[in-house]
Design brief:
Layout: H1 4-22, E1 31-32, H2 34-41, H3 45-57, E2 61-64, E3 68-71, H4 76-100, H5 103-117, H6 124-140, H7 145-153, H8 155-159, H9 172-187, H10 190-214
Antiparallel strand pairs: 1-3, 2-3
Helix pairs in contact: 1-3, 2-3, 4-6, 4-9, 4-10, 5-6, 5-9, 9-10
Amino acid sequence: MRIQRPNLVREATYDRLKRLIVGGRLLPGERLSEPALAETLGVSRTPVREALQRLAQEGLVELTPGKGARVRVLSPREVKEVYEVRALIEGEAAARAAERCSEEGVRRLEEALAELEGADPADYAAQIAADERFHAMLVAASGNRVLEQVFHDLDAALALTRQFSRDLNQSPETRAQHRAIVAAIRAGDAAAARAAAEAHVQAFKATVARRIQEAVWT
C-alpha cells in the first residue's frame, strides 16, 4: 500500500486538474498556482507539479520559465485548424450515418438532441455534457471506429475553446443547425447531412476564432 499510494495521489491529482480544465472550471489564460492548487486539492505541491507537467505535454497547460503555469490559450490559427479537422470528421460521420443508421439509431440521436435542448441554460456544465454526448453519438453513428478515435483526439483542444462558445450552445442558430443534421440523417440524405454538419462546425469556427483574436491576454 505504501508503494501504491503515491501513484494513486498523482493520478487523482492529474485527473482532477484535467477535469477542471476540460470542464471549463479553469479557463484559458488562467494562472495555475502550485501552492493554491495543492491547498484546494488537499495534496502536496509535488503531485500538482507533476500533473501540470503532464497536462503541458497534452497541450492543456503552458509552462513558462519565470512565470509559472497557466491554462493554455490557443491562437486563432490553431482554432481554425482544429475546427477544420472537426468539420471534416463530423461531415463524414453524418454522411455515413445517413447511409447506415437504423431507426433506433436515429431515435437515439433525436433523444440526445432533445436532452441538449432541454438542458438548463444556467447550468453550463450540463450543457457541455449534453452537447458532447450528442456529437459523440453522431460520430459513433458512422460505424467507423477510427473516425471516432480521431474525433476524440480533438477533445483537449476543443476544451480550450469552450469559454468562447458558452452562449452558442443553445442559441436558435445552433439548435437549427443540430436539427438540420438529424433531419438529413433521418431522411437518409448523405449529402445534406454532410453539408449540415460541416456548416455547423464552420459557424462555430468563425465565431470562436474571432473572439480569441479580440481577447487580450497578459
